[in-house]
Structure formats: C-alpha cells, structure tokens
Amino acid sequence: MSATPQATQAISRSAVAAFALLAAAAWLVLHLYWGIAHDGVLYTMQGLAHLHPDFYRDDVFLRYGSQDRYTVFGELYGRTIGVFGVDHAAALLTLISQLALLWGGWSLARRFNSPSLAWLAVALFAVLDLPYGSGSVFTLMEDFVTPRELSEALVLGAMAAMLADRRWLAIGLLAGSLVLHPLMSLGGILWFVGSSIAANRRGFRLVGTIAVLALPLVALGAWLLRTPPESRDWAALAIDRAPYLVLTHWTAVAWSNLSRPFVTLATLALLTSDATTRRLTLAALAVSIAGLLCTLIGGDWLRLMPVLQAQPWRWIWIAVAFSVLMLPAVIAQLWPLGRQGRAALALLLTVYFFQDEIYAPVIAVMAVIAVWVAVRRPALIPPNQQKLMLGGALLLLAIGVAWDLANRFVYAKIPYVAFADLPRLTLLRRIARGSFFPSLLLMTLWWLTFRLRWIPLTRLLMGVGAVALLVAITLAGVRYSGVAYPSAIYSAFHSWRQLIAPGSEVLWTGNPLKTWIYLERPTFYADQQLSTILFSHTAAEVMQQRFAQLEPFLISEGVVMTGDKAVAQAAEAVTLADVCSHAQVRYVVTRHRFAAQPLSVLPASLPFPYGGLKLFDCKREG
Fold first, then answer.
1. Residue 397 and residue 353 in contact, taking contact as beta carbons nearer than 8 Å
2. Residue 595 pLDDT exceeds 90
3. Read out DSSP for 488-504?
4. Which of the four pLDDT bands, split at 50, 70 and 90, describes residue 603?
5. CA distance 351 to 241
C-alpha cells in the first residue's frame, strides 16, 4: 500500500518535469530576444543619458522633457549598462523582465487553479501572442528591453499577495510597479482597489452609485477643461505620430483582438461559483472598460493632453493577462456541462483562432450567449437541438482552425529580418507566432502528462523536452549574446569623436543609437525622438520645424517615402548647402554624394552600413 503514494508522487514529478521542459522550450523559441529594437531604442537612450548626462542632455529627446521623468527605469538601466555594456545590459534586462512576468503569472495562477492547471496557465501565458491596442504596438510579453513587463509582473504579484492576505507585501509590489512604469501600474492599482472594494457589497454599491451620479459632473468638468485651441495642434501632432492614442484611429483588428480577453472573462464570470474569482474577473473587465471610456471621452472627444499622455486604454492589459491565466479553468468548467457547455467551448476556442478577423466579436457574443444558456437555462434548448448546436459550433471551430492554418503558410513566406541569421527558426516562428496552434499543442501535452499518466510516454516526453530545451537554449544563447554595437566599430569612429565638438548635434538619419554610442553626441533628427512630442509642446514644435527643414534630405536618405517622382528627383539633387542653410545643424553624416569636401570618410572595408560614410562640417561649407 505504501508503494502507491510513492508511484503517484513519482508520476506527478515526472509529469511536471516533462511539461515544464516542453513549455520552457516553446517559450524560448517563440519569445527570442529581438535585440535593441522597437521601444528598446528609446529606453536605451534614457539609460545612456543617465550614465553619461553630459553627452546627451542637449538631445531634443531629453531637452524639453520626456517620459523618463516618471520612472526610475532609466537610472536602473544606465547602471546596468555601466557594468555590462549596452548590448549585454539590454539582453539581461529583457531576460529578467520575461522571467519576472512569468513569475507574476504563476503567483496569480496558482491562487485559482489546481497545481496542474496552474502549470498549463503559465505555459499559455508564456507562448500566446497577446497584443493589446491598435496595430499590435504592445504585447504582454515583449522581446526587447522595456519596463512594462517588470511593472506588469509586480502588479500580478501584488494581486497574488493580496489574495494570500499579505497586504503590506502587495502594497510594496504596487509601489515598485508605480516607480517603474506609472502608466501600466495605474490599471493594476485600480484593479487592486476595485477588487478590494468589491469584497464589501455595501461599499461596492456605494462606489457604484457615486460613480453613476458623478459621471455627468465629470463629463462637464472635462469639457470645461478641454484642450485650448493653441494646444489642439499639439494633440494633433501627438496623434499623428502615434494613432493608437485615440480609439477612433484603432483598426478593426485591434477591436477583434479585444474579443479574446473579454469573452474569456465574461464566460468565467458566468461559470464560477467562487466569489473571489468573480470579484477579480468583474474588476478586470470594469478597469479595462473604464480605461477605454476615459480614452474615448478625454482623448478622442476632448483632446485633453493629460489623458493622451496617461493612455488609460493601456489598462486593458489587466484583462488580457487575467483571461489567459484563467483560460484553463474556463475550459475545465465548460467541458462537464454537456453538449451546450462543449458548444460554448468550441465557440470560445474559435475566437482564439479567429482573433485577427472582424467577425471574432460576433463569435464571442455567440459564445457568451451559449455559456449563459448552459449555466442559467440548460433546459431552454431541447436535446435534439443541442446536437445541432454542438455540430454547428464544431464546424465553426474547424473553419477557424483551417483558416488559421492557411494563414500560417502565407506568413511563412514573409521574410523576417529580425532573425535573418537563423533562417530555419524564422520559418518556425512565422508558422507558430501569433497562432493558437502552439497553445493547442501545449494543451495536448498537458493532457498526456498530467491526465493520461502513462509512465513510458511521460518519460519519452521528458526526453524530448530535454532535447528541445537544449536546442532552444542554444538558439536563445545566440540571440542574447549577440552584439549590435561592437567595440571595433566604436574604435573606427575615434577620429570622428575628435573632430566633432562635444555636445554638438549630429544629423545622421536612422537609428539614433548609432550617433549616441559611436559618436557620443546628441542626434539632430530621428524618428524615435518623435515620441517626446507627447510630453512637451515645445519639443513638438521643434521636431515639426526640423522635419519641415529636412524633408527633402530625409526623402533622399530613404527615411521619408514619397510617391511623387518629381519630388523624389528634386530630393536627390539636394546639396549640403541646402541642408546647412535650412537646418541649424553643424555636422552631417551620410553617404550622399555631396559636391562638398567631407571632413572625414570611413574606410570602405568597414561592414555595411558604416563603410564609406562621410562626415561633413557645415561651418566649412559656409
């Protein structure tokens, strides 16, 4: 008799080991490090500015104020750069951030799920592509350096601590989230406060009544404080730079993506009999909807700059995260409800396969109705019609699977520049990234390891998982150890750093980090600098003026595209004198064939895009 518990324990440990190895391999492959890309460029600039303030404080990105004022991440990143260098610091913080987010997800998932379901929840959290906002600008797990993941991890950990009655720990984690990324933490704080208030029904009703009564007063006050006419141009510039700031510029795909978290949480609210689960579910939905309403009123309608800067629509990350962590519990509760529950489950999964399609919200509504009928009115549909209902839902699911599979073959043909050094991995990522198939595969592996409990198969999967993880670690090692800004190239610019006056702005189009790292000088104009116009009216005016001055040159450099052949030909004829006379810049770096004599030319033997670059001095031209 004593052997049975030991055997069960051994199976359980084997199941955990096998599934964890496979899930970890999938996470590493699907979330490979991008390098210093996307918003990672901006945060690297902030880190460098903290490390060498004398070099970069006059850069327009920082001169008039930026988001760096509201976070300690730049200081933390700068110190890390000082120890490890730019490339390795970015890779290290990216890895730590992803691990922290997985820790936060695990901390919360285990409060609502059995241990085995918690493993599945965090695995889905690790591999699912979870975009929010328009244009998939942001995702829950990001593959470049950013404080968003760390802030989100601390919010999830705070919620888990609250559920464990460790209130002071929860408050401390929320405070940490706030100083890392206030925009992301604010939604978490509202979720925390809202779920706490909801625990007291009287308090919940009181807050709800006050909110309803105060809504007209808040709308009136917001209208009276609306953006003055002179600032509306500022708002227009910010929105033109980042259309996702207002809901009226969101794409249909962005709204379709919202159907996944919303249908999952609505289903969970109908299914669960646990008061705590329902409370947190409704709080997550309420915070997300409140964020969208605040954006619609304050951003779209009134063009209030504080609202545009706060970006309350970002609060929807709460619903995205919590819905994924609770998805296994939703599936486990729907399956036993017979044909109606399984029909609802098929519709729910169809939404995940059709996530980017405009009809996903319609299927989501159908899924919620099916759940409501299965839970509240199970006798409403006769048994023979239940069969038809289940058959129709399964047919829709099959169409969704086929559609997603067909799209995978289309995506597989699109080049993926970020991983050009790993062509086979590029193909795998094109097939799997953004699809629900990896999650479906993990669900199958979870069933084989935790439910089937056939020891030979579990051991086989453990071996496969160990090999897969070893391969994934090798691939990840290639990415994480890569160097985008090598010391050899830095040394090649030594003479240029001697020629360029300290603190002088340099016009070198493209990634501003080239100017910052290799020349250790501010950048005169770069697309990434435009993000600062959201936080400074003066910066917005300066950047608009610089763009107007440099547009022909930017077209000739390929930074700005134009379909007008006459304009393009005129841009090709731009001279150094044109650039120097229109823009208040002294130094220009380009491979443009100006007639003027360059101050210096880099050797052609240097790798692209550095070989043959020319440094011009506008003073000499004058």
1. yes
2. no
3. HHHHHTHHHHHHSPTT-
4. very high
5. 31
Tell me the C-alpha distance between 340 and 332, whole Å.
Answer: 14
Q: What does DSSP say about strands 614-617 and 131-132: parallel, antiparallel, or unpaired?
A: unpaired
- Within 8 A by CB and 6+ apart from 337, the residues are 344, 374, 375, 378
Cis peptide before 382 (omega within 30 of 0): no
Residue 318: CB atoms within 10 A of its CB come to 31
The tens digit of pLDDT for each residue in 239-250 reads 988 899 999 999
**What pLDDT, on a 0 to 100 scale, did the predictor assign at position 475?**
87
The rounded distance, in Å, linking the Cα atoms of 106 and 451 is 20
The pair of three-digit structure tokens given for residue 328, joined into one six-digit string: 């296994």
How high is the pLDDT of residue 430? Answer: 67
Nearest to 361 by CA among 499, 263, 229, 429: 263
Whether 391 contacts 406, CB under 8 Å: no
Q: Where are the beta strands (DSSP E) in 52-139?
A: 131-132, 138-139
Gap between the Cα atoms of 239 and 124, Å rounded: 34
How far apart are alpha carbons 345 and 335 in whole angstroms? 7
Reading the block at residue 159, the tokens are: 């919620």
Q: Does residue 506 sit in helix, strand or coil?
A: strand
570 or 585, greater pLDDT: 585
Strands (E), 274-415: none
Residue 373 scores a pLDDT above 90? yes
Pairing state between β 614-617 and 506-507: unpaired
The CA distances from residue 285 to 267, 276, 282, in Å, are 12, 14, 5
Which residues partner with 616 through β-bridges?
588
Place of tokens 């100006």: 594
Average pLDDT over residues 513-526: 93
pLDDT of 316: 95
The Cα 619–Cα 588 span in angstroms is 11
Q: What is the pLDDT of residue 494?
A: 94
Burial 285-298 (b: 16+ CB within 10 A, else e): bbbbebbbebbbbb
pLDDT at residue 517 is higher than 90: yes
Token look-up 């009544």 returns 209
Q: Is the dihedral of CA 324, 329, 332, 336 positive or negative?
A: negative
